[in-house]
Amino acid sequence: MSVVARFEIRYTQFLDPHGKAQKELPEFAANADQMARMYRFMRLTRVFDQRCINLQRTGQVGTIASSRGHEAAQIGVAAVMQPEDVMAPSYREHGAAIWRGVRMSQLLAVWGGDERGHNWDGPRHDFPYCVPIATQCLHAAGAALALKMRGQASCAVAFCGDGATSEGAFYEALNAAGAMQLPVVFLVTNNRYAISMPVEGQTAAGTLAQKAIAAGIPGEQVDGNDVVAVRHRCEQALRKARSGGGPSLLEALSYRLSDHTTADDATRYRPDAEVEAARLREPLRRARRLMEERFGWTEEQEQALTEELEAEVEAEVEAYLSAPKPQIEEIFEHQFGNMPPMLAAQREIARKYPAPGHG
Ligand SMILES: Cc1ncc(C[n+]2csc(CCOP(=O)(O)OP(=O)(O)O)c2C)c(N)n1
Question: Which candidate, 21, 181, 237, 330, has a CA 20 to 30 Å from the CA of 55?
Fold first, then answer.
């Protein structure tokens, strides 16, 4: 027998779990403004996230999928996306969405069951949050095909989780992207669990990155808690996609520092010691250490930032809570160009029986 194919999966990390640089950092990491902006959005994502959970616990939003622990994997990518690029998120990309201009009050509306939230202030071509696992990968591949056909030098970015890589839609999207050399980047955040199912229970593959190889796409791993590594490798992948170099897949190794959603209790399936160990590797500590070491970030600046972000989040919460409730007939809208008579009749019935507090 002879060997007809070989592959290797590379891994990139710049900051160790304590935030110490392991090797020379890429050029952007020397730019104080850029790093401060990224750090600010990572912190904002965390503050918003905690406030969302409090709102859920007090019955003011429905269910919330937390992004705690995913901040570097989201901001590292968002920071190198251009407005013309297309984002296809899952349901956990609050940080990336906020970076792209979505208002926190709009995200709260989405989680509060008000679809008007998806009519958001981010780029109009971005996709809404996607709950059916992995289908957003197909949407991203489709958008990338459109970009390619139009000759636009932009790319699509699909965000998905480790669980999504066990879905048919994921493999179909990768296959199409490879076969047509589409300008799309798949960012797989491996947070170790698909609800209660650990990665080892879903796949015998040693890495998720290698799933790309079968589709003829380069796949690699990055430390998903290291915002410098995520940004650096994503920058290369996005540039390549925009300039006709084809698709890429990045597996960002991270950990979900929260329950799957507010409807979950992760203590039932995750050992405390594992969660504690993950806390020591989390992304914000590292980014803060980098800010302290490279740019003299002080405790006073940290305090001031916290106060500023809390006020910003509070204003958005207020905007969400004081927004007029949707009218009952709005659930019938935006489904058909011409509403079928049966639906129109149902709308009439609904108008007669408005839900309490809904007009
Ligand atoms: C097609 C489909 N199957 C099942 C579900 C139920 N479900 C919701 S979240 C989830 C796990 C997803 O895990 P992963 O892709 O790792 O993303 P994470 O939530 O960890 O970010 C499942 C199975 C769904 N939403 N869609």
Answer: 330
